[in-house]
Amino acid sequence: MVIGCLAALKPTSWFDRFASAVSVSAASIPDFWLALMGILLFAVTLHWLPTSGTGTVWHWIMPVAVLMMRPIGSLVQVVRGSMVETLSAPYIDAARGRGVPTRRILFVHALRNAAIPAITVIGVQAAGILNGAVVVETIFGWPGIGRLMITSVLQRDFAVVQAAVIVIALVIFVLNFLIDILYGVVDPRVRT
Fold first, then answer.
1. Nearest Cα residue to 114 out of 90, 91, 81, 92
2. Cα separation of 30 and 34, whole Å?
3. How far apart are CA 96 and CA 153, in angstroms?
4. Which residues contact 38 (CB under 8 A, 6 or more apart)?
5. Mean pLDDT in the chain?
6. pTM, rounded to two decimals
7. CA–CA distance from 131 to each of 45, 92, 117, 182 (Å)?
8. How far is 174 from 166, CA to CA, in rounded Å?
9. In this structure, what is the dihedral angle of CA atoms 70, 71, 75, 78, given to the nearest 10 degrees?
């Protein structure tokens, strides 16, 4: 959120261009390719991190980084676009004219109004993380619902596959419900 806000503060600046290039790249890279390249670089070549398993904190670094890369890239892009639009609104010019500090304008006035698209993207990306976890859990050898689904499909245990799909669908339903509630908290106009 902060990177998107700072990039929107001065559109077409070097920071905006750099943040946009990195976030578009992060949102575009497939999870499986990033996971394999992470293993190749950090585990095989540099020997900094383990290739798989869940034993220590070091085992968490690559899978979490791979799962978070796409959502962070998408969120930066949406927050930047929403903030650019909000910062060009007349009430922001009025706040600047009254001498309100830039930090307050950014994080109090503009971010609250630009948060609705960001909340939507967070919900969609949270559901995407569940889907991406199937691949990442398999590549990194993590025990989880994704790996359980892959193993169940390979063993033709369709009852477990159906149960896993129901659990994932229920989680996505609850996430969407919480996002709808959060809309009303962030923007009182949505409550009506």
1. 81
2. 6
3. 59
4. 49, 62, 65, 66
5. 88
6. 0.82
7. 29, 39, 21, 23
8. 12
9. 70
pLDDT for the residue 192: 65
Label residue 118 by pLDDT band (50, 70, 90).
Answer: confident
Phi/psi-derived region of residue 89, left when phi > 0, alpha when psi is between -120 and 50, beta in every other case: beta
For position 163, what pLDDT does the model report? 93
- Taking CB atoms within 8 Å and a gap of at least 24, the contacts of 137-143 are 137/63, 139/32, 139/35, 139/36, 139/39, 139/52, 140/35, 140/39, 140/51, 140/52, 140/53, 140/59, 140/62, 140/63, 141/52, 141/53, 142/52, 142/53, 142/54, 142/63, 143/54
CATH number of 2-191: 1.10.3720.10
Give domain limits for the chain: 2-191
